[in-house]
Amino acid sequence: MTARSTRPADKFDDDDYPAYTMGRAAEMLGATPAFLRALGEYRLITPLRSEGGHRRYSRYQLRIAGRARELVDSGTPIEAACRIIILEDQLEEAQRINEELRGHDRPESSA
Q1: Taking a C-beta distance cutoff of 8 angstroms, is the pair 33, 23 a contact?
Q2: Residue 64 has pLDDT above 80, yes or no
Q3: Which CATH number fits domain 16-105: 1.25.40.10, 3.20.20.140, 1.10.1660.10, 3.90.1150.10?
């Protein structure tokens, strides 16, 4: 038996693996394929393409799309919802970097 670095089942645990077709993704979100295409047009998510050119979505992308769906369902225009999510993501990243930098600035305590 040949050793492999990843087993096929490992892909199911990978949040970034493009496991879902557009139809299945739309069904899971309770949205339309047009909604998912719009998220791509506003550059919120960029689905990977299968060899046949079909859009494929990861679980991570579906979580982002779900957040957009929540905002749109509450009355936020889709373009604004996409911008809000992008800004939230940028803020979270900036806060993470800030915390890392603060951690490096702290003097180490000696024991």
Answers
A1: yes
A2: yes
A3: 1.10.1660.10
Tell me which residue of 59, 57, 15, 16 sits closest to 36, measured CA to CA.
Answer: 57
Amino acid code (one letter) for 52: G
Q: CB of 49 within 8 A of CB of 56?
A: yes
Q: What is the DSSP letter of 75?
A: T
Both structure tokens of 1: 């038996």
Measured between alpha carbons, how far is 3 from 58 in angstroms, rounded to an integer? 26
Q: CB neighbours (10 Å) of residue 12?
A: 10
| Tokens 């799309």 found at | 65
Measure the CA–CA gap between 21 and 43, rounded to whole angstroms.
18
Of residues 44, 29, 8, the one with CA closest to residue 21: 29
Band (8; pLDDT cuts 50, 70, 90): low
